[in-house]
Amino acid sequence: MTRKIFFYKYHGTGNDFILIDNRDFSFHIENNELIKHLCHRRFGIGADGLILLENTNKADFKMQYFNSDGNLSSMCGNGGRCIVAFAKYLGIIDNTTQFLAPDGMHSAELTPSGVALQMKDVSQIEQVGQDFYLDTGSPHYVKLIDSHENFDTVSEGQKIRYNNRFNKVGTNVNFVSVENNKIILSTYERGVEDETYSCGTGTVATAIVLGLLNGKEEQELHTKGGILKVSYTKKGEAFKNIILEGPVEQVFQGEILIKNRSKQL
Questions:
Q1: Catalytic residues, which ones?
Q2: Is 201 known to sit in a ligand binding site?
Q3: Which residues pair with 223 in a beta bridge?
Q4: Domain 125-246, architecture per CATH
Q5: Quick check: 75 and 207 in contact, CB under 8 A?
Q6: Closest by alpha carbon to 249, among 182, 198, 204?
Q7: CATH code for 2-110+249-259?
Q8: Count of alpha carbons within 13 Å of 221, Cβ hemisphere only?
Q9: Does 15 carry a binding-site annotation?
Q10: 226-241, pLDDT tens digit by residue?
Q11: Over the stretch 156-206, which tens digit does the pLDDT of each residue have?
Q12: What global pTM score does this model have?
């Protein structure tokens, strides 16, 4: 027995996702093995995660996000920006929207440079030695380093992600350096368990940490996949009106034939 799944492939600064129009709820979210298979870069389509667009009576649409390991996950900033562009492509929205995401309601706007997404407010920032830990829709550990030259993001990220504190639930790990007046950012993502070309919630977390240190309310960060901009307003100890902005691209669309070789698929 076989079946076809129609999908779209998007990326936001190299952070790539499979997007599926699931307004008819025909894609079953409990099929973790299928999601893992689709995200596999050798045996499937290949992506950092899979996103379902679904109907809701609370907003224009609902976002369901899964990591490439097949598990339902927390908020994804770049994924949020991609699904906004997807909703525009499907004719669900015009140039502005409100949608329901894993961490609650978000507003967003299509701009000449891509998509600008409003993120949740952040007020709790924990300092861990010289490092920082905060939640921007997903948990992030931010570490300042001297340089990214010859720096191994994967091995250094694993040391933190799998330490005694984070081993069970995991955390994303961001490394940031300032080189030639540019803010350079790399990210090790839980659920992907590898370095990704970009991470939206991680870019926001890093920009907030830098804002604590340099007082700036707007940061431009260079990831492996491109440039993301973050702006916010600091009110007391809280960061509000946080906007993540950057390019989004539909890479391709197609059908994948799923062969039920096992009960999992």
A1: 76, 199
A2: yes
A3: 226
A4: Roll (3.10)
A5: no
A6: 198
A7: 3.10.310.10
A8: 36
A9: yes
A10: 999 999 999 888 999 9
A11: 999 999 999 999 999 999 999 999 999 999 999 999 999 999 999 999 999
A12: 0.94
